[in-house]
Specification:
alpha/beta, Nucleotidyltransferase, domain 5, six-stranded mixed beta sheet, five-stranded mixed beta sheet, 12 helices, globular
Length: 413
Amino acid sequence: MDETSRYAVGLDVGTENVRAVVLSVSKSGELAVVGYNEGKSVGMRKGVVANLAGPAGAIDKMLGEVEHMCGRNIDSAYISTNGSQILSTNTEGMIAVGVVDHEIDDEDLARVEDVAVVGRIPANREVLDVVPLEYAIDGQGGIKDPIGMAGTRLEMRACVISALSPNVENLRKAAENADVAPERIVPSVVAAAKAVLTERQRENGVAVIDMGGATTSIAIYEEGDLQYVGVVPAGSNNITNDLAIVLAIEPELAEEIKTRFVTGNLKAEKGNVIRIMRGKEERVFDRKEVETVVKARLEDIFGEVRKKLKAAKYDQRLPEGVVLVGGGAKMRDIDVFVKGALEASAKVGVPTGLGGVASDVAKPEYATAVGLAMMAADENGNFVAPKKAKAGKKAAKVKKSGPSFIKKIFSKF
Ligand SMILES: Nc1ncnc2c1ncn2[C@@H]1O[C@H](COP(=O)(O)OP(=O)(O)OP(=O)(O)O)[C@@H](O)[C@H]1O
Ligand SMILES: [Mg+2]
């Protein structure tokens, strides 16, 4: 492997699954997938850390194989957060930039951003991102980049993404307990959008919908910028649970029915049956009954999604439609259901445009991890040291007694 390459790591800490992707970044900026893995998540509830040991153990276990695969130690990563605690707030700020003929500089932008953010977001929230949507100089709006322009009064419109501080802090702790320094925390659907959207889609207007196990998140893009983020606290697991309850069957069987036999094209005829072998026993289910349960839950979830699109003023105003990602998007023909429910074109999105073993992660459930690694690559990348040890991550390491050097660097997070 080229030792001059940079390496960027994305770590998706989901409610059901943890996933990681390592990208190598060549000098000319080409990205290649050099490591990836997924594992069962532990100790997460609706996108949020419910106990520290669970996710830390799950991350640690899963990363051992990634380190093996790419031959590097993973000490830091871009990490996803999720849950209905994530909010986007549209804010405005205004500052006087002083004397006539003053040219607007970086300092002015930082000052107007401060005004737009400080005091507008509740105190117990951490700002994850500030997306400048538009600037106005002396009352004239529609400016994307005001640097170098002259004026006396600078206004800014921004979309501020925030999450509850204790939740973000617990996620950081869980990662640190797995010896991974959290470089940046990104809402999982925003990271997924990075991996699956084209420039044209972002420009014209599109929504990414990440249907995970316990959450369904929405990110809306228009004019190239993120305009809105919202999270519905229900996901594909709810379908499994409903099937288990209504059919009075064990969750594993309900999951098998969902993943093998259910489609988003819900049109079963009477008398149509689903047959599953459990050992020597054949179990038979009425397809119509199964579909009634699935349909009710999908209608509920996408009804909530539609309410959020409406609240954000993008209902039936998305020329590029919606792009579905996450494990829930693996349901066959899910796009057919979503098209009907949202009255918008819908398709399943997968990460594209990467080299290396990219085909292995060209799956909707890998969109978040890939997007996180792509963001890390864009915004510097994290140089990942060559791997020295031979065993799994924790086993290979001498346990540090104090905070590591990298943790000190990132202690400001
Ligand atoms: N073929 C399939 N058809 C339908 N659902 C599927 C299929 N494969 C996986 N799923 C569902 O995808 C869900 C897991 O998705 P994912 O791994 O994206 O969740 P997560 O990121 O851990 O959760 P969250 O984002 O809500 O925190 C599970 O509910 C699983 O049953
Ligand atoms: Mg997820």
